Amino acid sequence: MRGRHAVAWLAGWIGLVLTGALVIVRVDIAERRDAFQTDARIAHRLLSQRAVQQEAVLATLALLHPTAEGADRPEQRLPAVYPQVLAVLRRDAEQAWPEETLREAETRSRRSGHAELGAVDVVRGHYTVLQAGTPSSFALRIDVQRMVPWDEWPVQKHGPVRVALLQGGQTLTIQPGELPGEQPVGLSRRSEAPVQLGSAGGSSSGLLYTASQVFRSGLTPGFVFAKTLAAPGQPFELQLRRATGPVQWPWAWLFAWASATALALAGAASWLEARRARRRAEALLRVGQVARLNAMGELAAGMAHELNQPLAAVMAGAQAARRLLDDEPPELATARQAIAQVVVQGRRAADVVARLRRQVEAPEAAAPTRPVQLEAVVRQVLELLEPEAQRRGVRAALHGRAAPVRADPVALEQIVHNLVGNALQALDQVPQAERRLDISLGTHAGHGVLTVRDSGPGIADEALSHLFEPFYTTKRGGLGLGLSLCDTLAQAMNGRLSAHHTEPRGAEFRLVLPLAEEAA
Ligand code: ADP
Fold this sequence. Notes:
alpha+beta
């Protein structure tokens, strides 16, 4: 059970960590994407401003076409003012452009009326922009890396973002950045063993990633920004790309989240465990209390049951004595006998109380036993129950003899009293002529045996198995405690009580007790 609990908690923790990690990573990526987009828009604005500025300079030159006087041409001072301008090219009326691309650009510029793009030098990172004019046309050779001063540049200089200007399939790299599968210019090939990902078969460089590339860049396209510069003569598409991979994830936050959830779950688990233990203890206590209450209730009911008989006899004896004394002349001898019976029954009640008290104080202590004459006890009980037997017209027959048994005489008397009393009550249910009560004594296998057999209705099969259970009764107003008490008392004396149905009709109860000399 504990193992299953641990696995469930672990699974719950992993689920929680993964869910939280997903949220954290997504939020982090969203934030970084926002920052990337903001930076990209700033870069676009700055580059567009520079491009527009360059076209304005060209337009001014073409309009003013400063006179060429010797070597001191004023436009040659421009590179000193604009760091991105590498050179200012000029074609006067009688000259021709040295390059074909410039000639074509001039034609286009004349047609469009604004500056046009000349040559793009991918290797050096230059391009030329040209403005046709009359009589002179001008062109500027621009170094893309210097278009925006680094201190104004929003993107980290040697960072992971790749920035480039794209035009007609040509790429002018402003900064290489770090992208998976693409080897930035100037860096040697990495030496890690390549890991092949994606669909099989492709051994071309595009499908080969090193493990560290995957970790650094992931497998997603990352962040991309693409927008054409807002200068008609330099229609470059500005492209910013940034690969994002696990290496950029907020690992500190992820670790903190995993630790916090582990701590919280460990706390919750131990709290639940403590609560479960507390509840179990409370339940045990409750059950114990109920059991105690039950035992006390049983004891009280048993006491009432056992005291009933002697108290009834005391009452009867006392009333008889009063009547006899009231007679004229008073029947002193008989009254004395009745009073003696009252004393005997009073002592019996006292014995019952003493035994019950012993049971409460030391329930597990065996009852004190001594050799007892079974026959004597049976005769005493028959004498006690004589009036009841007479009232029913029953004459009990006593057969056989038994050697002395080892027993608690009060308990033994209680058992016999119950058995004979039950038999008399059972006989109520058959016609008087058929009422028989046989009590036999005997010795069998080292035990004294007492059998009480009646010709009453007998015991139904389904009742047989419940007779000795407390509170099982079929009588109106019956307590159902007599036989269960007898059984307990018999066991306490190392004896055994059993019930049987007899043929053709009737019940038989057998009490077996160890013989006195055997047990000694
Ligand atoms: P109670 O007498 O209060 O019912 P007991 O424990 O003495 O309690 O008896 C339990 C039940 O056993 C009785 O209700 C009765 O059904 C059955 N029983 C006991 N003795 C006999 C008997 N001699 N013949 C038939 N049934 C009996």
